UniProtKB/TrEMBL annotation:
Keyword Signal included in the entry's annotation: yes
Location in or out of the cell: Secreted
Signal sequence coordinates: 1-22
Domain of life, per lineage: Eukaryota
Major subcellular site: secreted
A Pfam family the protein falls into: PBP_GOBP
PANTHER family, alphabetized: GEO07291P1-RELATED, ODORANT BINDING PROTEIN-RELATED
Keyword vocabulary terms for this entry: Secreted, Signal
InterPro entries (UniProt xref): PBP/GOBP, PBP_GOBP_sf
Similarity comment: family membership: Belongs to the PBP/GOBP family.
Name this protein carries in UniProt: Uncharacterized protein
Length: 153
């Protein structure tokens, strides 16, 4: 089970680190620690079944309510979803500025911006964000290569 949580953390980590200038060990540790902490908290709120973990690990769109809400929780904790349940890079970009160079921050901004289009789609759960996370997940997966983001772990 811990391997799946780590895989989800690594997925999130590579979203924000690929293509950046080399991170120091301290930067790597800080980012990974934050992500792992957030994913563990989200796992406590939305415990995933083995099948749900496999699906997310294999970059499949979360289909169950629990998996969608887990994704929303992680998105919120890493700052790519705001408290209104919309995709927004504001917090992620602010956090990235503390760790990454300007070019990497711009890539992150553009990458997240690509997926803000899901904010225009109707969802039934509003600020909860679970439905929007389901819409955003494939957008992030499908656009990763375009922005030089590796989702292979």
């Amino acid at each position: 089970m811990a391997n799946y949580i780590l895989a989800i953390c690594l997925l999130t980590f590579v979203l924000f680190s690929k293509g950046s200038s080399a991170l120091t060990n301290a930067q790597n540790s800080a980012v990974l620690s934050t992500l792992l902490s957030g994913a563990i908290q989200c796992f406590g709120e939305h415990p995933l079944s083995a099948a749900e973990m496999d699906a997310i690990k294999n970059k499949k769109t979360p289909e169950t309510e629990n998996a969608k809400c887990f994704a929303a929780c992680v998105f919120k904790r890493v700052g790519i979803m705001d408290n209104k349940g919309n995709i927004s890079g504001t917090q992620a970009v602010q956090n990235a500025k503390k760790v990454f160079d300007k070019d990497s921050v711009k890539k992150l901004e553009d990458f997240i911006g690509e997926c803000t289009k899901v904010n225009n789609q109707h969802v039934n759960d509003g600020a909860k964000g679970c439905d929007r996370a389901k819409l955003a997940f494939p957008c992030f997966v499908n656009n990763a290569q375009k922005y030089g983001v590796s989702l292979n772990f």
